[in-house]
Amino acid sequence: MVPDLPVELWLYIISMLPRGHLYKLVGVNRTLFSLAMGEIYGEVRFMDDDQVMRKTFHQLKYPSIARRVQHVYIRPGFFAKMERVTEPKLSVIKRLRANIFRLGRRKTLQPAVDPQEDILLVAGCGLANCMAVEELTIILHDLLPPPTFSSFVTTIWVSMAPNLRRLTLDATLPKLALLLDPAILQNLPNLTDLKISITISRFSSRPKRDPCIIRPFLNSLTKTLISLTILSEIMDLTNLFYGLGHFPLLQTLSIHTAMNRLTFKVPYLLAKFITLHKDTLQVLTIVPLDAMLLRNELSYRVWVTQVFCGLDLPALQSLDIGLSMGFPFSDTIIPPLYSTRLPRLVSLILSDAYMSYDDIEATFGNNFNGNRLESLQIRVEELNPQVLYLLAERLLHLTSLDMTFERRSVEILPIHDTYDSYDLDFEHQMSNCKLPNWNIRNLKLSRVYWRSCPLPHYELRTMEIVAGCLPSPVTLGIQNECICICVDEPSRHD
User: Fold this and answer.
1) Long-range contacts for 430-437 (Cβ within 8 Å, ≥24 apart)?
2) Residue ranges of the domains in the chain?
3) Is the confidence at residue 15, as pLDDT, over 90?
4) CA distance linking residue 331 with residue 479, whole number of Å
5) pTM listed for this prediction
6) Rounded to an integer, what distance in angstroms lies between the CA atom of residue 262 and that of residue 374?
7) Which of 124, 138, 237, 448 has the most CB atoms within 10 Å of its CB?
8) Does the pLDDT value for residue 11 go beyond 50?
9) How many whole angstroms separate alpha carbon 193 and alpha carbon 196?
């Protein structure tokens, strides 16, 4: 009998096949059967209350299927939507017509079981068998869950809590309080990755609950949590860090929120929490959420320039910090990111603000010579040889550069007739720019075409010109963050 191929070789063969062909190979051998079953039942998405969903939950009663479920995604869109309760104003004639119409109708029997409660019962029975789930996602906004939803959540926690490693909660504060109710919440001994997104309800301009309701839940994870991500819109999250315990294993911290007087009242608490974990923190992300819409105010800018830049983070390897739109001002320059405070930093992202030459020079001070920075994503006001010379001088070990620019230096000259003339002038200006000691391997240069799309679009010709100044071939980034066709782009980019 010919022995079967190793599992690694089958995985390589499957990776070369189009998506979906694995199902056609189910009957070849046990290895492919197991892989196909894992792909079919590896994720359960509970979004509808149709017959297909009920069939899936009924299949979960079999242990051979239930043990294959690794990720459960719950977003019950069939719940009733929340509405403002208003008294309808009907005229007398409309009321009479309505009463006459009701008299002619025969009474209909109400169903004995609410369909929503029935699907929750079926789902609870099926998911209760999924003991091997490692990732759980629950999204619940302005909907009205039936009374049995609490029992369903209890079933989820009881069955999945022991092995759960990654948890994502996206909900309004009232729904978040329901999901994290201490009366039903079970201990999560293996949870390492937590993402909480706090959404504002459409029916209240300000939250009636304090976001600190999640603090007891966070404190219960102090011994296991490795990654923490918190997103909010217009709520004060700084008080959340008051009384929050120490997470000895915390390596990744991501904060996405609007930074203004309403949401950043006590900014030193965030700095205190970061300092408390400086010995373990390796990835730090602090990005103002929807900076163009919610106006991140001076308090955040002062915090970045005066508080954050003074922190010592010896273990930090990746930093993503938003500078907010319109920052820095002409009289405010970012303090240098001294390499002595970030000795292990290898990846840096400075988003939102377009930086001038003086800002770049101040940010990457002379002490940055010889640092370990390998990847940089930045926005600059003007792309010119001076900026490239400065970065090449200060960032000796940089291998990946992602730069978004407002303009090229030649575009402040008298108006040209075509894009090609701009390219020729820029190419002529860069012809004498040589960077022999800068070993960039990945290069992406982009521009925002505001009349068409707020996201950066790559500039292929500009990248080719700059790549010609480098000593070795580079990989050009030719993928945009969006899928639109930017009408402001030259035709050569189509």
Assistant:
1) 430/385, 430/465, 430/466, 430/468, 430/469, 432/385, 433/385, 433/388, 433/389, 433/469, 434/469, 435/388, 435/389, 435/392, 435/469, 435/470, 435/471, 436/471, 437/392, 437/396, 437/471
2) 22-82+115-217, 226-372, 374-380+397-494
3) no
4) 36
5) 0.82
6) 36
7) 237
8) yes
9) 10
